[in-house]
Amino acid sequence: MELTTLLDSPWLPPAVGAALVVVPTAWRYARHAVTLVHELGHAGVAVATGRRLSGISLHADTSGLTVSRGKPRGPGMVATAAAGYLAPSVVGLLLITAVRLGWVTEALWVAIGLLAVTLVFIRNLFGLVVVLAAGAAVGVTASRADADLQVLLVASAAWFWLLAGPRTVVELWGHRRRSRTGTSDADVLARLTHVPAAVWNLVLLALTFAALWPAVDRLLD
């Protein structure tokens, strides 16, 4: 297959996205980007539901923490707790939509703006490095890549986020079984709603898998 044919293939973005999620070495580094989006999901919904965002920390072991102030219970707190594991899938859907509508460059500049705002709330050095690295990567793509390359990279990123969503929820299940600390998002949701954490785990898994359908449908169309 010629290189130009390969680059034009609609199967290349899902292949790249899957490689980043499945190949252990790639996932080890790409997982930090997932943690960033996970914490931004918590932060964005916290602000949207009237909570006050205090800070975001990202750690070298791919864990993260978002601190917000407000009512300790209620729909806003439930939405904030649920948002983290759903955030990668939401980002993937937004990027797929941007590709479909031809808004790829606009999406890149929106991402740069959001990352710039994020810098204000980062509370540790490693988190700062992650956000700056993400901003540099998106900035180079927005300012240096031609239109075709931008579409390829954004479509690949969309598939990465869509596939990363279910993987992180599966990891959540394994983490809960191993650690039993009761501090995971599913455990927080269980305490807030009195619905078992395992049920929340299944709900999150179902939603992240469902988010894949628009991309798969477009691929097979």
Structure annotation, total helices: 10
**In sequence order, what are the helices and strands, one letter per element?**
HHHEEHHHHHHH
Model regions low in confidence, pLDDT < 50 over at least 5 residues: none
* N-C termini distance: 22 Å
Portion of residues within helices: over 70%
Q: How would the global form be characterised?
A: globular
So what's the oligomer here? single chain
Biggest sheet: strand arrangement:
1-2
Q: Outline the biggest β-sheet.
A: 2 strands, antiparallel
Strand content: 5-15%
Radius of gyration: 18 Å
Mean pLDDT comes to: 91
Q: Give the strand tally.
A: 2
**Derived structural class:** mainly alpha
What does the model show?
This protein is mainly alpha-helical and 221 residues long. It has ten helices and two strands, in the order αααββααααααα. It has a two-stranded antiparallel sheet with strand order 1-2. Strand 1 (52-58) and strand 2 form a beta hairpin. The two termini are 22 Å apart. The mean pLDDT is 91.
